[in-house]
Amino acid sequence: MSSYRYLWALFADWCAAADTSALPASPITLAQFLDENPAGDTVQRRRVSAINRAHLDAGHPVPGRVTSMRLALDSARSDRTIRRAAQYQAIAAGLPTEGSTAALFGRRDAVLLLLAGAGLSYNAITELDCGDVSVDGGSIWIGGRHRIRIDPNDVTSFQPVEVWKRWNTVLQFSDRYPSTALLVKHLQCNTFPDMTALPHRGGPVAVPIDRWGHLPLPAAPMTAAEIGSVIAAHCTGNPPAHTPRRSVTRPPAEADHVHTVVVQDQPVSPEFDSGYYRSGVDARRRAHTALADVPGMVDDVEDRIEALLQRTIDLLGDAAP
Questions:
Q1: Residue 291 forms part of a structural domain
Q2: Nearest one of 210, 234, 237 to 222, comparing CA atoms
């Protein structure tokens, strides 16, 4: 542990010179320390590990576990995140935002793609609250333990603020006017009442929607598996099919109503075996059960890889003179 003591002493000395607290230290302080003391990814991760260990031993929250810090210290993962962000943003830009029930799913799925492309895991998106997301000019700021900024893309003209505001408007409207029919009406006209003066209410960002467009009341978050399933469907070019909501029309006045009887041929239904539908339903249920945990398993594998990498770095640090 002599290596950890040396690295911690280096950080403590820097904090003393900068007249800032070393224990506990904020993620901003840690980021400034790493920026002013450049080194390779391996050395920087060892420094963060030593600082985190000192905080854990003292019973303080560790400053080096924010999502933005983890991405910055892993060049390979950061590069993958940049490429994935471009792919997800292109998909999000093509989703519907008005005119039908599909626009409701389009607004939500665009935000899920935006967050996943920024490097948030499916579990992190599940736990994300609307209060953690704020607008800073043309950028989106994800606070809490993530501290990630999503900037607009000047090349593709992708505007993350517009993506977030469209979905946040739906969430705020549904919270105050829990009527799916009214929500769909506003989506069709793309006109929502001004709710800026109303108090902001928190709640999960990722909310499930049934095929008819109903949101849960009270709002409940999607599971990590559900989020992964939605994103995987878009990435494979097979987005979920959504049933349009039927429009309800009132009959005309009785005096003007003319009863017309139309005789149509009765359709002939094919004869199926009694077990035909049951076997099909059972097969779909088995497939759904077998594949539901795949996105979560991928996240778990990635977390284990990071844990093994961190453990290897710790061992190398212990072995260093």
A1: no
A2: 210
